[in-house]
Write a structure and sequence with these properties.
The chain has 318 residues and is α+β, with helices and mostly antiparallel strands. The chain contains 15 helices and six strands. Helix 1 packs antiparallel against helix 4.
Amino acid sequence: MVLDFLTDEELYDFFRKNKTKISTIEEPLMFLRHLKDNRLITDELYQKLENSNDDNDMYHALEYIQKCGKKKVRKFWECVDQEHILQRYPQLSEITETLKNSLKSEPNKKTRERSKDRDAGREREVKKRKTEGNSVSNQAGPSSQSTKNQRKKFEHVDKGSLKNALKNEPSKKPQERSKDGGTGKEREIKKKRTEGSNQAGPLSQSTKSKMKTSGHVGREEEKDLWDMPEHKEWLPVRCGEKEALLNREKLRGYNKNRKCIKYRKEMITPSQFEEMAGKEKSRKWKTSILCQDKTIQDLLDEGRLEMPGTKRRNTYRE
């Protein structure tokens, strides 16, 4: 892929500079679905943008991707650089073409030259190995002559001197040689065990650090739902199989007839939402309606949400 020649930093910088231009595409709903399916934006954020008529919806989605880091931005460009997307959105096609043309700049030209040098080096290495293989096969004949010459040299050596040399050099007994060989094997086994034990520690530490990192990311994702700007006013909620958005500001001034839930572009009361979800028998919408597996009553008790007549428990800590 052409984008492989661009670094994560270059893709991120180009994304940041063209974010406003990208957000002006017409009828962005299909593109937002494409981003959701590729896990570039969350289902909650997509649902909020789908139910909103704000012109800045696309820009909010791009801001979310930018906050997720350079790897997400690279994945964004890979999702954009697909034929059906470029045909559907000419603006994205124009922007992507500009990005690819940036490869002609001097830094990227050097990158491509380095890549070509690596390919040329690999070809030279393959040719070298083939040449060495051919030279080895060509040496098969001369090797037999070399062997004959060595035999002649040994024949000229004084047999008596060979015998004297063998007498003067004390040979080890078969048992000692076997013992030395056994000792050498034992040393090799101990060495392998030592190397294995030394590697066990860092691996286990690496595993623990990964587990801690994954747990930390999970906690941050849970926290982000409340701290992200897009959830300051609207909060994704569900009741049974139904999903909707809760207006936090209208909930603060709640009364029995207060319509503070947006369901399919229509404002309704919490009780009506509970009835639509088939939970009207409970008659306790504060416990029937959930947000991230927590009831509205729990969120009120923790101080995450506010409404008239509720007392906050000191159970929620920032």
